[in-house]
Structure formats: structure tokens, C-alpha cells
Amino acid sequence: MVSWAIVQLTALKYTGDKEAELMEWTGTDKKWPHLQDVPVYSVGPATTRALKSVPQEPPLQIFGEHTGNGDALAKFILEHYGQWYKGRSTKPPLLFLVGEQRRDIIPRSLMDAELPSDQRIQVDEIVVYGTGVMESFSHDFAEILRATEDRPARWVVVFSPTGCDSMLRGLGLLDESTGKAKRDGREERNTFIATIGPTTRDYLRRTFDFEPDVCAEEPSPEGVKRGIVQLLERHR
């Protein structure tokens, strides 16, 4: 049996029912008496708040909320993990709980072959959630676009790679013959696109050759707002 020393959570989608999941894995409804010895890494404030609400005694030790994205979190883990297990020649692996769509920046950074062997961290990934497109999305999206078409500016915020094709199609930006975003029609417009983070931004770039107007530096409503405000200030 593998003994993991780190649990890493980077999405609120999973943490919402974390306690029930832990009970299912262990086959018990008792508290985990040693879980406070395991560092839990969270990429942003929303996930951290959900983790803090888990009624675990002693409470979970959660780190990384300030990082805001996978690149910064990976750097933080490398330093923090080394200090947490300082003096141990063999360090336990990191359990990385992920969704179907994710970037590989964290496992790639932590297992980088160029790192000294005593700094590298083995990462074991487990997919714990997936996302899907609601059947009513195309209709609902079209209704919202019609209701807001006279506004001088409107923002579409994309929270997941799932459904990006439906979003672009609804905006008339998808070339059905190529599967890529149309190259014209974006100069004079009142609709702008923001993504919750780099995973969705990179998916739009890679899959559709589409560049969103804003990518939030922190995966939260506040992070999206800051990105939009910064863009507007640059174009005053």
C-alpha cells in the first residue's frame, strides 16, 4: 500500500464533498488522528475556504493559498516540502487530486529530472472529477447574448475547457470548416473573453488558436475582476 505524505487539492469541485470522500476511502466515519501531520496544498482562496470547513480534529494544515496558480504553487511546494521533511533521505510521494482537464506544470516541475535527487518529488495523480456541458447551454447562452446585445461592453468568463467550443460557436467565432477560431471580426466588438486561469487559456490557444482578452492571475472572482480592471485601465 502506498503511503502518501502530501495531499494536493487545486479545485473547489472536489473539496465540496471531501469529508464524505475520506470516509469512503477509509471505510469509517471516525476522524483521521494523524491527518494534521500531512501538508495539504491548495492553489487559491476558494479551495482553501472549502478545506477549512472540513470538520477534522485536529484541523487540516493547509498551505499555498497565496500562490494563485500552478506555476507559483509548484515552486512553493518544492521549498516547503523540503523543509517539512528536512532530514529524511526518502520523502513520501505527493498525491495530486485532479480533474480530467489540467495542466502538467505541477508534476513536471516537481519531478524535473534536472532537480537534485533529494529535491525531486514523486507525484501520483488521481482523477477525482470531470466536467460536462449542460444540454441547455447553447439555448441559455443565446438568450443571454440577445438580452445583452445592446450593451457597450459585456464579458464572458470561462471557468473550464469543457464547453469552450459551444461558447465560441455561440459567439459566432468558431470556423466550423477548420475547427479553429475565426481570424476576423474581433476588432469592433462589445464582447470580451476572460478565463479563470491558465489551464482554460492554454486550452483555447492550443485547440482553437484563440487568445482570450484576460487570464486571471488568481483563480477566483476577485482575480477575474482584477484582470478585467487592469485591461480596461490599459486601454483608457
From TrEMBL:
<feature type="domain" description="Tetrapyrrole biosynthesis uroporphyrinogen III synthase">
    <location>
        <begin position="33"/>
        <end position="223"/>
    </location>
</feature>
<dbReference type="GO" id="GO:0004852">
    <property type="term" value="F:uroporphyrinogen-III synthase activity"/>
</dbReference>
<dbReference type="InterPro" id="IPR003754">
    <property type="entry name" value="4pyrrol_synth_uPrphyn_synth"/>
</dbReference>
<dbReference type="InterPro" id="IPR039793">
    <property type="entry name" value="UROS/Hem4"/>
</dbReference>
<dbReference type="InterPro" id="IPR036108">
    <property type="entry name" value="4pyrrol_syn_uPrphyn_synt_sf"/>
</dbReference>
<protein>
    <submittedName>
        <fullName>UV excision repair protein rhp23</fullName>
    </submittedName>
</protein>
<dbReference type="Pfam" id="PF02602">
    <property type="entry name" value="HEM4"/>
</dbReference>
<dbReference type="GO" id="GO:0005829">
    <property type="term" value="C:cytosol"/>
</dbReference>
<dbReference type="GO" id="GO:0006780">
    <property type="term" value="P:uroporphyrinogen III biosynthetic process"/>
</dbReference>
